[in-house]
From TrEMBL:
Binding site residues for NADP(+): I7, G8, A9, G10, A11, M12
All residue ranges annotated as the Pyrroline-5-carboxylate reductase dimerisation domain in the record: 163-267
Native source species: Terribacillus aidingensis
Pyrroline-5-carboxylate reductase catalytic N-terminal domain location: 3-100
Protein name: Pyrroline-5-carboxylate reductase
InterPro entries reported for this sequence: 6-PGluconate_DH-like_C_sf (IPR008927), NAD(P)-bd_dom_sf (IPR036291), P5C_Rdtase_cat_N (IPR028939), P5CR_dimer (IPR029036), Pyrroline-COOH_reductase (IPR000304)
Reaction(s) the record says it catalyses: L-proline + NADP(+) = (S)-1-pyrroline-5-carboxylate + NADPH + 2 H(+); L-proline + NAD(+) = (S)-1-pyrroline-5-carboxylate + NADH + 2 H(+)
Function statement: Catalyzes the reduction of 1-pyrroline-5-carboxylate (PCA) to L-proline.
Length: 273
């Protein structure tokens, strides 16, 4: 892999750029970035990360192994129409990060036979801790899939799934960091309410999250069993968990994931031909 090009210079592009540079997968100038209108944003990315920025599509796409479409779904059509007339080589892989958008829709704008891969990472790519799922389009071969898996594997972990699972993945790990931050917000507020200093509360909470995630990863026990091990009869945890049960928090979490998956599907349907 010698050159990758990002179309769209937003939050997700920045997270992946940071991670790829941190992982030393390829030198920063070999990472090319363009966007629609915000020149200041492009110049900032160049200044901060040393990536090459351009508004010239020919220059952007020339000899690029991987083209990453990182615009919002509403901007997909315009970006794809422009890619569709760009005389791409058949070895150039078009990777889409867009939630909901199917490979069939992407392929419908591109010449027949163009390899397309749908990817759902998350913002933890910034610190090489992304959870990414990858689904192949119609014309992608194993080698191309491996190349993209390697790219996203450098910024975290990457798994292959069938495209029919991408809405579920988007709802779990694409949006997932936001659920965790939401929970953290609530816990931070709660920690102040019970009298902890903000910094101390935050430090304790972050380590508690990290420790719990590492325990789940390293232990043979399930999350339910690990929880049971903390919950002494008549103790503090039991008192806290009883409130979560009374308030149906599990049902709310399940409804949250369902709503995100439904939304991903709706977005796919809104952008289909
Ligand atoms: N933010 C997140 O946590 C995640 C986002 N995604 C997906 O990544 C994509 C990008 O999301 P964000 O970075 O959050 O959006 P963003 O709004 O921060 O960035 C989008 C960028 O696309 C540019 N753009 C719009 N139309 C363009 C065009 N025709 N040509 C070139 N550039 C154009 C905008 O100028 C902007 O720089 C979305 O489709 C989203 O579904 C996927 C996983 C996680
Ligand atoms: O909210 C969104 O649509 C994007 C996709 C996954 C995370 N953020």
């Amino acid at each position: 892999m010698d050159k990758i090009a990002f179309i769209g210079a937003g939050a997700m592009t920045e997270a992946i750029v940071k991670g790829v540079i941190k992982a030393e997968l390829l030198p920063a100038p070999h990472i090319w970035v363009t966007n629609h209108a915000n020149e200041e944003r492009l110049q900032r990315m160049h200044a901060v990360y040393g990536v090459t920025v351009t508004r010239n599509q020919n220059e952007l796409l020339q000899e690029t192994d991987i083209i990453i479409l990182s615009v919002k779904p509403k901007d997909a059509e315009q970006a794809l129409r422009s890619l569709g007339v760009a005389q791409l080589g058949k070895q150039q892989i078009v990777v889409s990060l867009m939630a909901g958008i199917t490979t069939a829709y992407l392929e419908s704008f591109l010449p027949a036979g163009q390899p397309v891969i749908r990817v759902m990472p998350n913002t933890s790519a910034t610190i090489l801790e992304a959870a990414t799922a990858i689904a192949a389009g119609t014309y992608t071969d194993k080698q191309q899939l491996q190349l993209v898996k390697r790219l996203f594997g450098t910024v975290g972990s990457a798994v292959e799934v069938g495209e029919e699972l991408m809405d579920a993945v988007t709802a779990i790990s694409g949006s997932g960091p936001a659920y965790i931050y939401y929970l953290m917000e609530a816990l931070e507020e709660a920690s102040s309410q019970v009298g902890l200093d903000e910094d101390i509360g935050k430090q304790l909470l972050i380590q508690t999250f990290k420790g719990a995630a590492a325990m789940l990863e390293q232990s043979e026990l399930s999350s339910a069993q690990l929880r049971a091990n903390i919950t002494s009869a008549g103790g503090t945890t039991a008192a806290g968990i009883a409130v979560l049960e009374n308030q149906n928090v599990k049902a709310a979490v399940k409804a949250c994931v369902q709503a995100a998956a439904v939304r991903s599907k709706e977005m796919g349907q809104a952008y289909s031909k």
